[in-house]
Amino acid sequence: MAAISGVSGEQLSLIRWHYFLYVAAALVVMVAAILYGNFWFLDWVHVMSGVLWTGIDLFMGFVVGPILRSVSPPVRIEFITRLTPVTLFLLPTLSVLTGTTGWFVAVQGGFTQLPWPQFGWIAAALILVTLMTIQGIGYLLPTSLRVCFELQKPQPDGEKIRHMMSRFYYVVASQGAMQVIIIVVMAKLATGV
């Protein structure tokens, strides 16, 4: 994998393959939570992965995005060079953990058996998760990959990266907003529908 020089002169690998070990460990924890049969543990994995996913999305969309738009292109490229390899693995993993364990929490908690109109809360969460999955797989992940590939070039095109990332943070912010709506749904379900 190509490497680039950092500000301090060190070489940074753009794709950090050892992150697959962290992804595998997270998936093992998820499978264990599903198979173990302990509802508390399953719910804990769901809530923790959801909190991390939502917190990171909100921070990226509403804090990092506006800051990056206001700094010089070389600073932007340097920051994105360090951020993209992490988010390339972290955010898809958190979304898989949150969505999958969320479904099993809903099934084991009896929420999928609710009658209308109470089931509407579950339907709303499913619609939002579907929209976020489409955004993630159809736009966020491919954009992250394109940015990584561009950064691997000997002379990365800063303007091309800026163009690719210009909408990226808005989509991340919209994901964060949808996640906040899902939290409202979860709070409603937790307190009774």
Which bin fits the share of residues in helices? over 70%
Order of strands across the biggest sheet?
1-2
Characterize the main sheet: 2 strands, antiparallel
Spatial gap, N to C terminus? 51 Å
* H/E series: EEHHHHH
Mean pLDDT: 84
* Apparent shape: elongated
Low-confidence stretches: 1-9
Radius of gyration: 19 Å
The proportion of strand residues reads under 5%
Please provide the count of β strands.
Answer: 2
Total of helices: 5
Number of domains as seen in the coordinates: 1
Secondary-structure content class? mainly alpha
If you had to describe this structure to a student in words, what would you say it looks like?
The protein is mainly alpha-helical and 193 residues long. The chain has one domain (3-190). The protein is built from five helices and two strands; from the N terminus they run ββααααα. It has helices at 19-36, 39-70, 73-108, 119-152, 158-190; strands spanning 3-5, 11-13. The chain has a two-stranded antiparallel sheet. A hairpin with a 5-residue loop joins strand 1 and strand 2 (11-13). Helix 1 (19-36) runs antiparallel to helix 2, helix 1 (19-36) runs parallel beside helix 3 (73-108) and helix 3 (73-108) packs antiparallel against helix 4 (119-152). The radius of gyration is 19 Å and the shape is elongated. The chain starts with a strand and ends with a helix. Mean pLDDT is 84; it is low at 1-9.
